[in-house]
Amino acid sequence: xxxxxxxxxxxxxxxxxxxxxxxxxxxxxxxxxxxxxxxxxxxxxxxxxxxxxxxxxxxxxxxxxxxxxxxxxxxxxxxxxxxxxxxxxxxxxxxxxxxxxxxxxxxxxxxxxxxxxxxxxxxxxxxxxxxxxxxxxxxxxxxxxxxxxxxxxxxxxxxxxxxxxxxxxxxxxxxxxxxxxxxxxxxxxxxxxxxxxxxxxxxxxxxxxxxxxxxxxxxxxxxxxxxxxxxxxxxxxxxxxxxxxxxxxxx
Length: 251
What we know:
Blueprint lengths: L1 H16 L5 E8 L2 E2 L4 E4 L4 E4 L5 E5 L5 E5 L6 E4 L9 E4 L35 H10 L7 H7 L6 H9 L1 H33 L3 H11 L3 H9 L2 H21 L1
Parallel strand pairs: 1-8
Antiparallel strand pairs: 1-2, 1-5, 3-4, 3-6, 6-7
Helix pairs in contact: 2-5, 5-6
């Protein structure tokens, strides 16, 4: 009798696995790091879930069900569940999706713009969202072609901008635009100057970030970025880093 009881106790977990509502647990990695947001689909019972920040997931399934794991830019993983999968943590490793294309000849098409179509006579200036806000919400009168508009009697007043000027909101909008432009300048340094600063001056990533935020308000920096003069920017960054270190010593 004891032997029968022992056998039943051993078989009970496996019998429960075959019943509806059993849970299977797993974890998904990419480059040895947990991958969040992987879409897990039980093809047989149509249950769905996604991995959390630790790459972990739990989904209802039965033995023999097929799991489909998908993530943008990664190869899809298919896995048929066995009884053993319900007794342990399943580990999956995702790899990059590569698409082999036949060789084709690419010819650059002429760029169609409002200028070469004759619709617009000048090239419009590229502006950020905050810079557009400054123009649309703080300029009371459009000063472009002002003399012509005065002669034609066609002067339009931006009452929204007038209200913003009276309430003080215009200053806030201009400050937000300046902050946005400064942050973009700091991001440019981190993205384009990191390799140079690491190799030539042995700066760490933390020091590069400090330097970027230290100089992001300098007009000279914005001029160099606008001109895309990275060679002069390298020289200036070295000088500004020494300037920053000197200030730290004085403090």
